[in-house]
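Work Package 3 (structural annotation) set out to generate three-dimensional models for the target panel prioritized at the project kickoff. During this period the team completed the workflow that converts sequence records into discrete structure tokens, so that structures can be stored uniformly alongside our sequence database. As a representative example, we reproduce one entry of 260 residues exactly as it appears in the project archive.
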Amino acid sequence: MSEHPPVRTPRHRGIYLLPNLFTTAAMFAGYYAIVASIGGRFTEAAIAVFVAAVLDGMDGRVARLTGTQSEFGVQYDSLSDLVSFGLAPSLVMYNWSLSSLRDFGPVWGKIGWAAAFLYAACAALRLARFNTQVGVIDKRYFQGLASPAAAAVCMSFVWTMEKFQVPGTELCFVTLVIAVVVGLLMVSRFRYYSFKSLPMGERDRVPFLWVLVAVLVLVPFLIDPPRVLFVVFTLYLLSGPVVTLWGRAAHRRRIRRAKP
């Protein structure tokens, strides 16, 4: 009698847990940022959001390297991003600075928490729009400021001010403007370079200039991380409107030249 060989389960089935562990760790870092800000540890809160950004960038790469992409992972990552780059930055900014607006009257107090909510709502709208357009948009560019970059702008600002011992209560109106502007840029139509077309594989080669640029950025970062992060991400924030408006102006000039 011939015996059927036992059916072996694929060995790689359990590896689906690996990218989701990175996603969970990113969400934990965002949640820790909220808890730290409630306790008044705002530097720790800002650093935790950056840790979440690093872990968020790793989960997708791990999933692609191991061939474990799934629709569940995509949706779970989006929910994690909402916590880490939507709720966490908005609550850190509120606890650090925006809550002090109530000292100017009850109306200003409501404006403070409304600005924090606006930021969180714009992050949620940005993520929802990205999920619905992921298959039709140009992968070289983001439509609107990506939520991790938006969180990096806000948290590097908090981190820098905390390093120089500038209390958030003295910057409540500045924080108000930053929260509203950054939130609206997330749902804007400005184009931001996604850096997804940069060579990252083992066989990809880059010009020597890229190595020099990396060194020039890395050295100041090691000396003063908060200020370097704030400058870099602020320049990235401004690049969207500048590049988009410049491109539209150039397009109009080409149309005028083409007309007889």
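The longest strand covers residues 141-143.
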